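Data deposition worksheet. Section B asks for the primary sequence of the deposited chain exactly as it was used as input, without tags or linkers unless they were present during the calculation. Section C holds the resulting structure in token form. Section D is free text for depositor observations; keep each observation to a single sentence. Incomplete worksheets are returned to the depositor.
Section A, Depositor: J.P.
Section B:
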Amino acid sequence: MRRAVYAGTFDPVTNGHLDILARACLLFDEVIVAVATNESKSPVFTAEERVALLEGNLAATPNARATILEGLTVDFARVHDAQAIVRGLRAVSDFEYEFQMAQMNRHLADDIETIFLMPSEDFFFTSSNLIKAVSRYSRERIAKFIPENVVKALEAKFPQE
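Section C:
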């Protein structure tokens, strides 16, 4: 079985993330969406909430599942017998960071490949940080970039008057 790990913070999950996931699901028999706890990013949603938000959007990708990631992605990939780590690239600004991380992962586990996928042009500029920033003031303007369950979850986190 060809298995990949798609790791990230997903705070919150965006349509761009789901686009990358759909592309990865075409390439692999199973894709594990690994939600990193990463408290240094001060997430709005708990890891459990992020997994639930992802799970609410997996119907279109039946060969995907979501779970919490603690520790190194390469260690998680090994435990789950994954051959690859999927990463999304939106813009040139992502490349340097992603390249460095891929090289470190290769150093730690040279048998696990890093696969870079680009989202649809409709989503290449969206990021979870932009979504959170705009959602505090205008959710209707970002609704096309996030799933409906994320819109509702953001409404609960940031009620607007």
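Section D:
The first helix runs from residue 15 to 27.
The two ends are 50 Å apart (CA to CA).
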